[in-house]
Recover the amino acids of this structure.
């Protein structure tokens, strides 16, 4: 059974720093991995989707990488801003089509 | 604006009553999903639908039912058989089932007492 883990559960960093969020998964037979952000009490917003044949995707200050063989993905945020404070979740889509989420990392950017 | 609308935002019910959560999308997406989110837990998949008149159970379908009579609508009924129904419910859609980003609604917080 696929398990998705995000460590740490919470992270605080000063504004302006670059940071990396981690995601690991147990079954490498996936179609893709997605990163989302969630603000308190809201739905999720899709940030990046990496297909299994790809190594990375970039959008603005965000860069996500995927190493399928080791079951790892990272989300790199450059020059962090207070508006980046949110919970970041990763999710993998298995070969049975189901999308499985990690529990997320709560990120707090200190002004 | 295109998007997913979940209503109501907050819902209160007495134990033993069935309740239906609404999810409507105007994105022309084929696939739709229902997730449940509890504090300290990730999202857990309840049901998903690849196309009209077809849906599949997720990991925690017991005590829930869905229908997909129209492409834009995917209502979720929480029945009295669901043992712990109090939760934040999120509806999502994607263009197709595989390799397509998920778009989420803003959720319905259901409280059952």
């Amino acid at each position: 059974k696929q398990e998705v883990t995000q460590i740490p559960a919470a992270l605080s960093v000063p504004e302006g720093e670059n940071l990396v969020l981690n995601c690991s998964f147990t079954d490498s037979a996936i179609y893709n991995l997605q990163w989302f952000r969630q603000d308190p009490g809201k739905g999720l917003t899709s940030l990046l989707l990496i297909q299994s044949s790809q190594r990375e995707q970039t959008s603005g200050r965000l860069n996500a990488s995927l190493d399928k063989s080791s079951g790892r993905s990272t989300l790199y945020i450059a020059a962090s801003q207070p508006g980046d404070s949110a919970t970041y979740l990763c999710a993998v889509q298995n070969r049975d089509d189901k999308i499985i989420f990690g529990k997320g990392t709560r990120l707090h950017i200190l002004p | 604006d295109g998007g997913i609308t979940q209503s109501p935002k907050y819902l209160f019910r007495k134990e033993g009553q069935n309740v239906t959560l609404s999810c409507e999308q105007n994105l022309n997406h084929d696939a739709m999903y229902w997730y449940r989110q509890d504090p300290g837990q990730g999202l857990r998949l309840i049901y998903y639908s690849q196309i009209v008149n077809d849906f599949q159970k997720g990991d925690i379908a017991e005590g829930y039912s869905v229908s997909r009579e129209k492409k834009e609508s995917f209502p979720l009924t929480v029945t009295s058989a669901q043992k712990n129904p109090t939760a934040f419910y999120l509806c999502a859609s994607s263009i197709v089932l595989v390799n397509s980003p998920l778009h989420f609604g803003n959720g319905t917080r259901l409280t059952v007492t």
